[in-house]
């Protein structure tokens, strides 16, 4: 656990905070050809990321919460 990347840490924090919202949904997918896909929705805000690495994919959706705090 001590070798987590920053996107992995953010995902864990997001999971911990999920109960603070009325509605929260996370869907994570991976396949060898297309890479990662992450869909996240939280109290009406939605984000979707795609990429070859988890970090790149997570970066596609972090603005959803960084730019629009609760």
> Helical content, roughly?
25-40%
Oligomer kind: single chain
- Global shape: globular
Beta-strand content: 25-35%
Strand ordering within the main sheet: 1-2-3
Cα-atom radius of gyration: 12 Å
Q: Counting H and I runs of at least 4 residues, what is the number of helices?
A: 2
Query: How confident overall, as mean pLDDT?
Result: 85
Largest sheet: 3 strands, antiparallel
Number of strand segments: 3
Helix-strand sequence: HEEEH
Structural class, please?
A: alpha+beta
User: How many separate domains make up the residues?
Assistant: 1
The first-to-last residue Cα distance is 28 Å
- Uncertain regions spanning at least 5 consecutive residues: none
Describe the structure in brief.
By secondary structure, this protein is of the alpha+beta class. It is built from 2 helices and 3 strands. Strand 2 and strand 3 form a beta hairpin.
Describe this protein's structure.
- This protein is an alpha+beta fold and about 70 residues long.
- It has one domain (about 5-65).
- The protein is built from 2 helices and 3 strands; from the N terminus they run αβββα.
- It has helices at about 5-15, 55-65, and strands spanning about 25-30, 35-40, 45-50.
- A 3-stranded antiparallel beta sheet has the order 1-2-3, covered by helices on one side.
- Strand 1 and strand 2 (about 35-40) form a beta hairpin.
- The protein is globular, with a radius of gyration of 12 Å.
- The protein starts with 5 loop residues before the first helix and ends with a helix.
């Amino acid at each position: 656990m001590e070798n987590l990347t920053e996107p992995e840490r953010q995902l864990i924090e997001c999971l911990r905070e999920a109960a603070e919202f009325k509605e929260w949904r996370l869907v994570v997918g991976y396949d060898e050809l297309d890479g990662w896909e992450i869909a996240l929705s939280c109290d009406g805000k939605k984000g979707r990321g795609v990429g070859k690495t988890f970090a790149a994919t997570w970066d596609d959706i972090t603005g959803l919460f960084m730019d629009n705090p609760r």
